């Protein structure tokens, strides 16, 4: 995958946030002062979201969760956002005539908060073309398996069924495939002989939370670009320091 195309760079910059790009014609702009705004998408208990909320309480982290979106009501992830005073929005697939209409509503709501990055943290829906056109190259997903093994929504179960000896989590830049985007970071945990899906899922999450916090912070603070299968941080990407 190439870096974001020129029009996407311009649309990100239109809201005041630089996207480091392969497009040498796209002018660099200085990063605005203040924390980098992110929108987080959730479908469940939201412990990854909580890790981001906790980290962003420290101004030195440099990231602010400006909104939390979900595909369902009544989940602890939304309650965590509300307790933190963060606005929420919900779009249930079944409330829309088709998937494209749902994708458009999700895209528009997320975009209305002006995020520099969107982060899926346990969001159990595939986003569509409109979402990827708006947020392509700046939409991250944390997945509870060591990609490219065990994509989908049952990573720990599929890993156990296969009999692997290590499992883990992958943070990647989402593309149009399912869990196929360029990898930002991976962490590894052992699989124990007596593991159940629940124990392995929890062990993975314990490693996944600090990984997510560390890398969302670095990507947001330093800028990045996608070069083929590699994700390069601002300085190593040869781009201008976004600060
Ligand atoms: N276009 C993409 N959207 C998203 C990706 C992605 O790689 N490409 N990653 C996800 C999260 N994800 C795993 O990390 C994931 C989410 C959902 C599915 C999926 O098959 N969902 C079904 C519904 C399944 C169900 O609810 O039982 C669906 O959307 O219809 C696979 C992987 C974030 N979005
Ligand atoms: N493929 C998507 C997927 O399965 N995502 C996984 O859901 C969990 C969310 O936990 P949380 O709700 O406690 O943050 C995380 O482990 C995340 O990788």
Automatic annotation (TrEMBL):
Residues 38-214 form the Formyl transferase N-terminal domain. The active site is at 143 (proton donor). (6R)-10-formyltetrahydrofolate binds at residues 99, 124-127, 141. The keyword Transmembrane helix does not apply. One of its GO terms (molecular function) is phosphoribosylglycinamide formyltransferase activity. Gene3D superfamilies: Formyl transferase, N-terminal domain. Pfam families: Formyl_trans_N. It catalyses: N(1)-(5-phospho-beta-D-ribosyl)glycinamide + (6R)-10-formyltetrahydrofolate = N(2)-formyl-N(1)-(5-phospho-beta-D-ribosyl)glycinamide + (6S)-5,6,7,8-tetrahydrofolate + H(+). GO terms for biological process: 'de novo' IMP biosynthetic process. Pathway: Purine metabolism; IMP biosynthesis via de novo pathway; N(2)-formyl-N(1)-(5-phospho-D-ribosyl)glycinamide from N(1)-(5-phospho-D-ribosyl)glycinamide (10-formyl THF route): step 1/1. GO terms for cellular component: cytosol. Keywords: Purine biosynthesis, Transferase. Its EC number is 2.1.2.2. The record marks 179 as: Raises pKa of active site His. Catalyzes the transfer of a formyl group from 10-formyltetrahydrofolate to 5-phospho-ribosyl-glycinamide (GAR), producing 5-phospho-ribosyl-N-formylglycinamide (FGAR) and tetrahydrofolate. NCBIfam families: PurN (TIGR00639). PANTHER family: PHOSPHORIBOSYLGLYCINAMIDE FORMYLTRANSFERASE. This is Phosphoribosylglycinamide formyltransferase. It comes from Flexivirga aerilata. The gene is purN.
């Amino acid at each position: 995958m190439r870096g974001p195309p020129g029009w996407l760079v311009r649309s990100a910059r239109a809201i005041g946030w630089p996207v480091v790009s392969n497009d040498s014609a796209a002018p660099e702009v200085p990063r605005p002062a203040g924390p980098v705004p992110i929108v987080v998408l959730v479908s469940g208990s939201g412990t990854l979201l909580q890790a981001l909320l906790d980290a962003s309480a420290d101004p030195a982290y440099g990231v602010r969760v400006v909104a939390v979106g979900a595909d369902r009501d009544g989940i602890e992830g939304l309650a965590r956002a509300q307790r933190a005073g963060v606005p929420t929005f919900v779009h249930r697939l079944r409330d829309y005539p088709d998937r494209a209409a749902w994708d458009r509503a999700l895209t528009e709501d997320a975009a209305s908060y002006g995020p520099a990055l969107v982060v899926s943290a346990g969001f159990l829906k595939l986003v569509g073309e409109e979402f990827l056109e708006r947020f392509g190259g700046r939409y991250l997903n944390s997945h509870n398996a060591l990609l490219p093994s065990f994509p989908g929504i049952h990573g720990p179960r599929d890993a156990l069924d296969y009999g692997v000896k290590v499992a883990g989590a992958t943070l990647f830049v989402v593309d149009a495939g399912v869990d196929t985007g360029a990898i930002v970071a991976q962490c590894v945990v052992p699989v124990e002989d007596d593991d159940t899906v629940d124990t392995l899922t929890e062990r993975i999450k314990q490693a996944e939370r600090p990984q997510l916090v560390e890398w969302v912070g670095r990507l947001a603070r330093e800028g990045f670009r996608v070069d083929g299968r590699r994700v390069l941080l601002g300085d190593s990407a040869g781009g201008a320091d976004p600060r």
